[in-house]
Amino acid sequence: MNITVENLAPCRKLLRVELDAKAVDETFDAITKDYQKQASLPGFRPGKAPRDMVAKKYDADIQAEAKRKLIGDAYRKALEEKKIAALGYPDIEEIQFGRGQSLQFAATIETAPEFQLPEYKGLPVKREIKSVTDADVERALNLLAQQHTKFETAARELKMGDVAVVNYTGTSDGKPLTEIAPTAKGLTEQKNFWVDIAPNTFIAGFAEQLTGAKAGDKRTVNVDFPADFVTKELAGKKAVYEVEVVEVKEKVLPAIDDALAKTFGAENVEKLRAGVRVDLENELKYSQTKAIRGQILGALLAQSNFDLPESAVAHETKNVVYNIVQENTKRGVGRELIEKEKDQIYNAAASSAKERVKMAFLIQRIAEKEDIKVSQEEVLQRVQSMAQAYQIPVDKFIKDLQKRNGINELYDQIAHEKVLAFLEINAKISDVPAAEAKPA
User: Fold this and answer.
1) Which of 199, 218, 252 is the last residue of a domain?
2) Global pTM?
């Protein structure tokens, strides 16, 4: 087999392969024999038809199978011989193929980038000096209590901390807001709408102008939509709201006692307090670990400069765009607005994708150098844990993963985590006051 390699661009090569006619004919013969064993032709028992008749009847199928086998085998051997790490599928151009002649084809392939690993052990990072205090625990308990807040009707004027149930209509320059922003129906008119009487809720400045009003009162409320308001057509504009207060609701929080503790599955309030402290300590440890690893990754990226495969960046960009669109949709951003912002979304996604692809190659190379591997047992444990979390039978969960290449993704995910843990263990960590720690 004759192989030549041509560099077309960074991470892109042209592989030319030639296989002699003898190997081609041997493959044709072997495949024809297989067809002969199974062929069923009129006048002959299965497997007993003459070779020439079988070859003629199944010529197209035999040629297709021979081509697929010859090119596939030759391509894999060529990569192995030239020690090329190909990514994805090649673009194959057949130059010559047929019985009695050599096989010639060219494969355009993308390859993993070639680069020198930066120093990745002993990277200097900073860790915040922080601990969970009694005040932190009490704040967390108060947040838990707020989940059981009752809203009781109050026959008095609204004050900060209350909830106002209102009817409203909004205009700008005397026109309903929907004339300016057709998708802003909810901002134009609502009935029995609940507004927290607190700074910067709903629209900045809206709630504060309702203080002092009681049920049945009407107020004219003037607001300025922020320059970065989610509905772009209204950004920076002034609006006037005619508001009727339907009801004043007072927030009544439950006492932090054994009764509350039982609603969260704790035996008593002291057990709840102890559980909250453990949760907060775990959260603190997680955030410290995330910050440290963020600094490590930032340092690795800053020290690494190499070309990236276009297809890998394009694939990751597509994933990032999908995630951004999904997140915006969950936040209530309309498809119209997303379409208008598609160029900005794509540019942001492309930049993020390049960093993610670069980091993936760095992590992979470190894993190879340090012989960090992922076992089947580790993947199975992760699968079982995820299946339990989603309340899906393990067998069904595995089948779902296999349909979308999820098993390989889990291998990569676990390998990534193991490399990050290795880098953290080998980092040079300095404990500093919170103000000095670098953001993750």
Assistant:
1) 252
2) 0.73
